[in-house]
Design brief:
mainly alpha, Lysozyme, two-stranded antiparallel sheet, 5 strands
C-alpha cells in the first residue's frame, strides 16, 4: 500500500514538472509587449530626432563613430542636443582624430600621457569616485599647458641672456609673445621689457587650477561646463558670445563657450597671466621665481579676491579644496 502511494506521488510530481517546463517555454517564447508611449512622449521623441538631424546637417562634416555615440547617448537630454553647436561637433571630431601625445613631468620622472577623452562626470557618484576622475582629467589638461609655457619660458630666458645674437626669426617670436601677453611698450633691447614678459609667461600652479575648476564647474557637472566647456566661470560681454546665465539680473554678460575643454583651460591660464586684476598674482610669482622656489597654489590663491564676487570667502573655499584633497603635491615647478 505505501509503495503504491509513493510511486503515485512520484508520478504526479513528474507530470507537474513537465507541465511547468512546457508552459514556461511557451511564455518565454512569446514576444514582449513594448510600452505604449504617451502623446507627450511621442512629441518629445520627435523633437529630439529633429534636433539631432539638424546637428548632423549643420556640422557639414562626416561625423566619427565617437561623435555619433555622444549624440546617441545624449538623446535623453534635450537641453544638451539643442545647445550642441556645429563648431563643437566638428571640434570633438578633430580632437578624436588627432589624438596627440603630450609630455607630463612630475617631481621624479618624465612619462608620456596619451590622449584622454572627456569623461561624463555625472555618471560617477559624487565623492571620491568623481573626484578621482575629475582630477585625473584636469591634471592632464593643466600640466599639458604648463609644460608648453615652461618650454617657451626657457627659450625666452636664453634669448634674454644674449640679446645681440638672437636670430630674426626668434626676434619675431619674442615680439609675438609680447603682443600675446599684452606687454605694453616692449623694447627688445631693454632688460626691463624682458622681465615684464617673463612675469607673464609662466605657469599657474596645478593645485590652484584644479581647485578652481572643481569649484567653478561643480566638479564638471555645471550647465556651462557641459554645454560650453567652461570650467572656470569665464565671462564675455558681447551679445551671443556665450551662454546666458539664468540669474544675471541687469548685468549684461554671458558665460563664454569654448570648442574644447583644452581651450577653456588655456584661456583660464592666459587670463590669470594677462588681466590687470591679477597683477599681484604675477608679482608674487615673480618673487618666488627670483628666490628659486616652486610656484605654490596656497600662496597665489590669496591674490584671487577679485576672481569672485564672494572675495575672501571664495579664497577660503579654494584653500580648503587644496588642503583637503592634498593638491599641493602637484606644485613641482
Amino acid at each position: 500500500m505505501l509503495k503504491k502511494i509513493f510511486y503515485g506521488f512520484i508520478g504526479f510530481l513528474t507530470l507537474f514538472i513537465i507541465y511547468y517546463l512546457i508552459n514556461k517555454e511557451s511564455i518565454d517564447s512569446q514576444p514582449k509587449k513594448k510600452p505604449v508611449e504617451s502623446v507627450s512622449q511621442i512629441k518629445e521623441r520627435q523633437q529630439l530626432e529633429h534636433a539631432i538631424k539638424k546637428v548632423y546637417e549643420d556640422a557639414g562634416e562626416e561625423l566619427s563613430i565617437k561623435v555619433k555615440k555622444i549624440i546617441s547617448d545624449a538623446q535623453k537630454d534635450m537641453d544638451f542636443i539643442l545647445a550642441l553647436k556645429p563648431s563643437q561637433v566638428i571640434a570633438i571630431n578633430r580632437q578624436e582624430s588627432k589624438r596627440k601625445e603630450i609630455t607630463l613631468k612630475d617631481s621624479t620622472k618624465s612619462s608620456r600621457l596619451k590622449y584622454m577623452a572627456l569623461p561624463d562626470f555625472r555618471k560617477y557618484t559624487g565623492g571620491e569616485e568623481r573626484k578621482e576622475i575629475f582630477f585625473k582629467y584636469f591634471l592632464y589638461l593643466v600640466e599639458g599647458r604648463n609644460q608648453q609655457i615652461l618650454k617657451m619660458r626657457k627659450k625666452v630666458i636664453l634669448w634674454k641672456r644674449d640679446i645681440e645674437t638672437i636670430s630674426p626669426k626668434n626676434k619675431k617670436t619674442v615680439q609675438y609673445l609680447a603682443q600675446k601677453y599684452q606687454v605694453e611698450d616692449f623694447d627688445i633691447q631693454e632688460n626691463s621689457s624682458w622681465n615684464r614678459l617673463l612675469a607673464r609667461l609662466d605657469i599657474i600652479p596645478t593645485s590652484l587650477a584644479l581647485a578652481q575648476a572643481a569649484k567653478e564647474s561643480l566638479w564638471g557637472t555645471s550647465r556651462f561646463a557641459r554645454y560650453g566647456y567652461n570650467y572656470y566661470g569665464q565671462r564675455c560681454f558681447s551679445r551671443g558670445c556665450g551662454i546666458i546665465p539664468k540669474k544675471r539680473g541687469s548685468r549684461k554678460f554671458e558665460v563664454t563657450t569654448f570648442s574644447s575643454p583644452r581651450k577653456g583651460v588655456n584661456s583660464y591660464i592666459h587670463n590669470l597671466n594677462t588681466h590687470p586684476a591679477y597683477e599681484s598674482l604675477r608679482t608674487i610669482r615673480s618673487r618666488q621665481r627670483a628666490r628659486g622656489e616652486n610656484i605654490k597654489g596656497l600662496i597665489l590663491v590669496n591674490t584671487l579676491d577679485k576672481y569672485s564676487e564672494r572675495g575672501s570667502d571664495y579664497i577660503k573655499d579654494l584653500k580648503s579644496l587644496i588642503r583637503y584633497n592634498k593638491l599641493a603635491k602637484y606644485d613641482v615647478y
